[in-house]
Description:
Helix content is 36%, strand content 24%.
Amino acid sequence: xxxxxxxxxxxxxxxxxxxxxxxxxxxxxxxxxxxxxxxxxxxxxxxxxxxxxxxxxxxxxxxxxxxxxxxxxxxxxxxxxxxxxxxxxxxxxxxxxxxxxxxxxxxxxxxxxxxxxxxxxxxxxxxxxxxxxxxxxxxxxxxxxxxxxxxxxxxxxxxxxxxxxxxxxxxxxxxxxxxxxxxxxxxxxxxxxxxxxxxxxxxxxxxxxxxxxxxxxxxxxxxxxxxxxxxxxxxxxxxxxxxxxxxxxxxxxxxxxxxxxxxxxxxxxxxxxxxxxxxxxxxxxxxxxxxxxxxxxxxxxxxxxxxxxxxxxxxxxxxxxxxxxxxxxxxxxxxxxxxxxxxxxxxxxxxxxxxxxxxxxxxxxxxxxx
Length: 370
């Protein structure tokens, strides 16, 4: 029976890190095997990368000893099964097991973190199997969905309890790696962040953990960027040059008015097509406390000014550093395409983003009552 879980969702065979070679020894006794060899490897979901192997003695004794490229997560492979081990400089681990089902029957001595990790992997694998079986049954018999879901409730809560106990009992341990797959980081980012930081604190020299931590930093940045313009958030303030290239103004100078922050450019066809709608709504609500602040991604002042005049953009709040896509303000607001708008209330808080056409008119009608 193959082990029911791998860390292939975390390990990437083609990512290279600076190597920190380690000396390790893994020995022990595995009886009742269908193979005469045992090897030390890393598992990438569909394939193994072997480092070294040896043959069993007639009694099942073995010694795997050598130099590995880095402290990391490895596997001891016996036939089609393997045991996950966490190896550091000087690791000396002993394994005693039944080769006919080493996944289920193996005692790990000399590495509590490896033992605890494998114990949880068994719990996780059992839960995944039951969950997947239930989903298969629901897909086959949709009318039984409620019955099957109800029958899984106790199993789910039992698993959740086991998972929380595992996390609590393995604080700042490299054993926590498989727990990441149990966390819904979209809805429970705090738990995901906590586990990743504990792994980084305990095993930062591992290339796998470096990868996990870098993925976390990317996810955190994306989350922060997404939240930056969430409704109710304070709109990021900025100061930028106006059309004359000398005078500066701040977004906060318009506090007390409802502001449409409009990112556009003279060369942007969709922007120019939307301008008449913005002009119409500006004329409709300008005496009620509404204004527009246009941030141009132009790099040609003459073209910028000509477009303002041609499209009759009569509001005075036109700014740009003429930096095109490298312009400062669009970068602050993480603008990926134009036209892009941010509607801001009188207190400087974001109402909604990317409103155009009828959607913008509807939102302004709700604000001003007509």
